[in-house]
Structures are given as C-alpha cells and as structure tokens.
Design goal:
Layout lengths: L2 E6 L2 E6 L10 H16 L5 E6 L4 E3 L4 H10 L21 E5 L2 E3 L1 H8 L2 E5 L3 E3 L13 H8 L2 H10 L3 E2 H6 L5 E3 L4 H13 L3 H15 L3 H16 L2 H11 L10
Parallel strand pairs: 2-3, 3-5, 4-6, 5-7, 6-8, 7-10
Antiparallel strand pairs: 1-2, 8-9
C-alpha cells in the first residue's frame, strides 16, 4: 500500500507512504487517500485527522510526474473523474492538521493548503513550481494560496516557482508553527488532542462558516453564521458544555 490510514481514539492518521518517491502522489495513492477521507468524514468516532508523509525528507512533492501528468492531461476537461479528496471534489468539515516534514512542493503544498492547520518541521521547504513545467497548480494552489497569505507573496510564489523555508513560511503566515523534526508528530497530536476537547459540532460549524463565508458577501456570510449557530443551540453538546461550566467540570462530549 502507498497510503497508511490508522485511527487511534478520536484522531485519524493519514500518511503518504512512498518515501523513495519523496511521497509523490500517483493514482493508487490518490484512490487510497480518497477512501480514507471518506471513512474519516463518515466515522462518528473520528474527530480530527493528521496528514503527514513517510520518512524525514518529504511531506509530499506533488503529483508523480511520470504517471499523473499524462492522466491529468487526458482528463483536463473532466477533473471530476479523479478520486475526490480535500484537494478538489470533497467537502469535509472535520478539522485536519498537516504535519509537514521536508519538501512540500507543488501538489504537496496544495495538500497542506487544503488542511486547516499546518505545523512545519524545521527542515520543511515549500514551493509551487508548476510554472517551470509549463503548467499552473491544478489542485487548488492558485485559489487557496492567495487566501492563506498576502496576495503579493502569493503572486511571488505562484509566478516564479521559488522555494521558501519553514521560517519564511511562518513569517508570511503559511504555517501556524515551526518545530524541530523530532517534535513534529507529537506537536500535531497535542493540537489534535486540544481540538478533541472541544464540542466537535461547534468546531465543524466554525470551519464550515469560515470556508463558505470567504466566497460570500458579508450579509450572506452572516446569515450562514446565524443558521449554524441556531443549529448548535439545539445540540446535546451545547447544553452539556453550559451545564459543565456551571458545575466547574469537564463536559462529557458526544458529538450530538
């Protein structure tokens, strides 16, 4: 298998396992990734996911050029035929953390951008070099990068294909935190555990409102926010968290 999927408690672990290919994505890996995401989405027990790459050299260097570029060209007018993932084709409101070890290039950076929180190891390197191959990022890079960092910096990266290191990525707001490589996964797990201590339906609603709201005008965004808040007031977890606060104890969350 080229992709590892494991669930421990409320955390799902997804690992691209092609270290000899610097965790490049081929069709088999994309299919396994898609299946894992669908299982994570539909699992009542899984509240947070961590995505990383196998080994120390690379998170993911994007598409496997030998296999994927001809396939992407063949399906250039039918991208929906590719397995649905968070890159394109799949809505998933549960929070996802990218633990970026080493190279995050092209589709690898686009994968990190499709996650909600990004923690980088000190050896991480980021770039969208597609223009150097005569193409553009096709898994969301041209859309998500300008939404994640200042437009001028996004233009610089997209138009030149230049690489930046982890500290520069942190400086421009591309990643949330930079840690030594040995601490990467444990830090991601700490963040995941922190999310697991919160009412999951509220976390998912916050993510949905944030992502959908970017595409809306303010009034429509406020309506969406109000609709989601009205729903949350009806949930068991909302009532339990309020009761637990009054009783000065930890809430017993059910995700209901």
């Amino acid at each position: 298998m080229a992709f590892l999927y494991e669930k421990k408690g409320k955390i799902a672990y997804m690992t691209i396992d092609r270290p000899r290919a610097l965790n490049a994505l081929d069709l088999e890996t994309l299919r396994e990734f898609s299946q894992a995401l669908l299982d994570f989405r539909d699992s009542a027990e899984s509240w947070v996911a961590i995505i990383t790459g196998s080994g120390e050299r690379a998170f993911c260097v994007g598409a496997d050029i030998g296999e994927m570029l001809p396939e992407m060209e063949r399906l250039r007018n039918e991208w929906w035929r590719q397995p649905p993932t968070i890159l394109r084709g799949l809505e998933l409101w549960k929070p996802i953390i990218a633990a970026v070890n080493g190279y995050a290039l092209g589709g690898g950076l686009e994968l990190a951008l499709a996650c909600d929180l990004r923690i980088a190891a000190e050896n991480a390197t980021f770039a969208v070099p597609e223009v150097t191959l005569g193409i553009i990022p096709g898994w969301g890079g041209t859309q998500r990068l300008p939404r994640a960092i200042p437009a001028a910096k996004a233009a610089e990266l997209l138009l030149t294909g230049q690489r930046i290191d982890a500290q520069e990525a942190y400086r421009i707001g591309l990643v949330n935190k930079v840690v030594p490589l040995p601490q990467l996964l444990s830090t991601a797990e700490e963040w995941a555990q922190r999310l697991c201590e919160l009412p999951p339906l509220a976390v998912r609603a916050a993510k949905e409102a944030m992502i959908k709201g970017v595409e809306m005008n303010l009034e429509d965004g406020l309506r969406l926010e109000a609709k989601l808040e009205d729903f949350l007031f009806t949930t068991e977890d909302c009532k339990e968290t309020q009761k637990a606060r009054l009783e000065k104890r930890k809430p017993l969350l059910k995700g209901k």
